[in-house]
Design a protein that fits this description.
Order of helices and strands: HHHHHHHH
InterPro entries: DoxX
Structural class: mainly alpha
Radius of gyration: 17 Å
Largest sheet: none
Pfam families: DoxX
Keywords: Membrane, Transmembrane, Transmembrane helix
Number of strands: 0
Low-confidence stretches: none
Helix content: over 70%
Number of domains: 1
Protein name: DoxX family protein
Subcellular location: Membrane
Length: 149
């Protein structure tokens, strides 16, 4: 498929790289010292989960995240970094796209009451779906260069 400027696979690569930059910015703007040493990110999420309208979110947070706040802080922060780098470089792209979908679904569910967060996570999830089903790793990617997928 040809378009005016780039081919279809090239546009999908642009979408993939843009999504990777979005994840990288999400990682970059976090105050990692506060997240890791003071636990602010997980404490903030605990406050939201504790008042969540769905009891499954409250109990799930208490069972999985609350017992391991420091570990979960590292998981969240470095998952965003890994997603960003994986999508920008096109390395293990399908894995990164599915991981991003899962993380966006988690964020979307936790922040169901916040319209701004819903919009951001919905857009990122849509980009992940398009990148996944459009096989955005075919062009401008390490996956393509290495013959993966």
């Amino acid at each position: 498929m040809d378009t005016i400027w780039l081919t279809g696979p090239q546009w999908l690569a642009v979408l993939r790289i843009g999504l990777g930059l979005w994840w990288l910015e999400s990682w970059r703007h976090k105050d990692r010292k506060a997240w890791f040493e003071r636990g602010t990110g997980i404490a903030w999420a605990a406050g939201i989960a504790g008042k969540h309208r769905w009891s499954a979110v409250r109990s799930g947070f208490e069972a999985v995240v609350a017992p391991h706040p420091r570990v979960m802080a590292y998981v969240v922060v470095y998952a965003e970094l890994a997603l960003g780098l994986g999508l920008i470089t096109g390395f293990l792209t399908p894995v990164a796209l599915v991981g991003g979908l899962l993380l966006n679904t988690l964020y979307f569910t936790l922040m169901i009451h916040d319209v701004a967060e819903q919009g951001q996570n919905s857009m990122m999830a849509l980009m992940s779906w398009v990148g996944l089903f459009g096989m955005s790793w075919q062009t401008w990617s390490l996956d393509s260069a290495l013959g993966l997928f």
